[in-house]
Design goal:
This protein is an all-alpha fold. Helices cover 85% and strands 0% of the residues.
């Protein structure tokens, strides 16, 4: 018990664990939709494209969250405007915006800050979560989870049968923008704990692992949340006792879970 209790005696550790669990909830809840709708590239693009906003926020001395959120919103709008007329596919639009924003962020970073100044944004720092960050994370996670719960049937219908969704009055395009908005919010929150480089793993790996075990979306979401929470706790304790970066520890734990789920799926197929 002492092993479990010791890190929790420090307030910064409690804040870090709270921030990590909030991030795990939001990312895992969206992970199934990201995997099933083939939006992995979009998640990666959002994670890297917020870099200019983070640098601008650093220059202005304001919370990096607001800079990242502003950049994420611009990315979503930009991709929508480029691909709306149908002259370019969405993948091409994502590639153009992603490359442009990320290159701009790298250029700005090289001029206004050193690598050490913003390295925690690139690779995450779960132990650096402040009380203010925790409040913002809580609000964002509540918004995302509420959006998923209230629009679950609409998202499900538009994801698997767009024609039927249009026939009953739903707009698949509007549903997609809703998912993108929630994805942008979640990406900004996740950057604090695992960083820009590893956000994609947190958004994709839980849903991918759960999809190897079950084919029911509701069960996949539940399994994703459980695996993300466990991985976050393991990464949290690893960062304290093994003196390693929290973000990579969380992602590697999720990767091990993915491998185990793959082995379970393989054994189940052989027995059948």
């Amino acid at each position: 018990m002492e092993f479990l209790i010791e890190p929790l005696r420090y307030s910064f550790m409690l804040r870090g664990l709270g921030g990590g669990l909030l991030t795990a909830l939001a990312c895992a809840a969206l992970s199934a939709f990201v995997v099933w709708r083939g939006m992995s590239f979009m998640g990666d693009a959002l994670a890297h494209s917020v870099l200019p906003g983070i640098v601008v926020a650093y220059m202005l001395g304001v919370s990096l969250f607001w800079g990242a959120l502003g950049a994420a919103i611009l990315v979503v709008i930009g991709i929508g405007l480029i691909s709306r007329r149908g002259q370019l596919g969405e993948d091409a639009a994502i590639g153009v915006v992603f490359a442009g924003f990320f290159a701009l962020g790298i250029l700005m970073l090289s001029k206004v800050a050193t690598f050490s100044d913003l390295s925690h944004i690139l690779f995450g720092n779960i132990l650096g979560v402040s009380s203010g960050d925790l409040v913002i994370m809580t609000v964002v996670v509540v918004i995302v989870l509420t959006g998923i719960i209230l629009s679950y049937k609409e998202i499900l219908t538009a994801s698997f049968d767009p024609a039927h969704a249009s026939a009953i009055g739903l707009s698949p395009g509007l549903v997609r923008y809703l998912i993108l908005t929630m994805l942008a919010l979640t990406t900004v929150v996740a950057i604090q704990t695992v960083g820009v480089v590893l956000v994609l793993a947190l958004l994709v790996t839980p849903g991918a692992a759960a999809s190897l075990v079950s084919r029911r979306l509701g069960r996949i979401i539940i399994l994703s949340v459980i695996m993300s929470i466990v991985a976050t706790i393991v990464g949290f304790y690893a960062s304290y006792y093994a003196d390693v970066a929290s973000g990579p520890a969380i992602v590697l734990t999720l990767t091990v879970m993915f491998v185990l789920c793959g082995l379970y799926s393989l054994v189940r197929k052989v027995r059948q």
